[in-house]
Amino acid sequence: MQELNIALVTIGGLTLVLSLIAGLLRNRVYVLSEPILAVLLGVVIGSLGLDLLHLAAWGDPFTIMEQFARLTVGLAVMAAALRLPQRYVREHARAMAAVLVPGMIGMWLVSGALVYVLLDVPLWVGLLIGAIVTPTDPVLAGTIVTGSAAEQHIPMPIRNLLSGESGANDGLAYPLVFLPILMLQHPPGRALTDWLLSTLLWEVGAAVVIGATIGAAAGWVERESKEHHFLEETSLLSVTVAFTFAVLGGVKLLGSDGILAAFVAGLLFNQFADATDEADEQKIQETVLRLFTFPIFVCFGLALPVAEWIALGWAGVALAASVLLLRRLPMLVVFRRFVDPIDGARDALFAGWFGPIGIAAIFYATVAHRVLGLELVWPAASLVVASSVLVHGVTATPFTKLYGRRSGRARTQRQSQSTESDASSSFSDG
Length: 430
What we know:
This protein has helices spanning 2-20, 22-27, 34-45, 61-83, 88-91, 93-100, 102-119, 123-132, 138-145, 148-153, 156-185, 188-227, 236-253, 258-272, 275-302, 306-312, 314-326, 329-335, 345-353, 359-372, 377-407, 409-429. By secondary structure, the protein is mainly alpha-helical. It has one domain: Na+/H+ antiporter like fold (Up-down Bundle). α1 (2-20) packs antiparallel against α3 (34-45) and α9 runs antiparallel to α11 (156-185).
């Protein structure tokens, strides 16, 4: 009970303080992002600091992080889906296909090759760790594409691209992670058969169909309830959160990919639901997501395997740096001609840099650790995640403002706001 109270006061206090000064952190204090502070809190109160809190006191640390990460990623992909305009995926099918198929496979192969070469591990182990760090994290990406600074400096097409990609590739990383897992568990023939029939056909294909069906049905019911005045504003909170949890849990019970199903369900819900409620549901979803984001990053800080990082030596440092630089940036530059929202090298460099690695990688790393028990997976993956949280957190605000200034967007926004203000004043005077 004592550790529960410590967790409540520290995590609750951090959430309260960061919620009150979120604008200050994003606009003035560049080096301290919210995820960085949450991880630091975990380090301070954990065995590396004051030794006040231990995940092991509540059960297996990897199981706790896996389930907490699954819920957080589910909320994040749902928030990303609700953030997108209606029919976004259909209207930008070529762009999404480019970043999610060849782009994502390229990121996987590059990351896997870096692990294979730098850590001198078997090929499939390298590809497993590479797959774990492949998906763009929707939680960290959400902190970049939302807020006043993002609205002022990042064009809407780029924000939508990052939201859509981060939401979709978290679920689509599932087959990339499980191909190496199956190859390490079974002979190649059986592993490939299981991957094609079970992982691709059922766990991915069925997730899309089930998620789309549930999302469309829920959206239609929500629209009808609104038209017949059955839905109250106070029930929006329970609807959007319960919807996410129901999809995650129900699809997982069927043995399919709950995270991908949650994203698809959110897209279809967004398309069929009453448009006037979408903004409210998006705000509610992101508020609830904030309540889950801080605890999982604190848990991550509690579980940092610093001794194992030191054992990796310079190879670990080189791995983290090379993955951040080479995993995603070259893919966006190469495939930018097929991605409509990207207009020129500046957009490609910005979108290519901000593909953070976070809670989705924590989830897949803990899954791989549970299934295979490989000791190297968690130290290598967690080192890359910690590096991404630090580097992308520190660069988010200054790079966003630099991008806005170089593209002229900040000046355009100020002129537009000035024009609106003048028009409003003239109207008032008249």
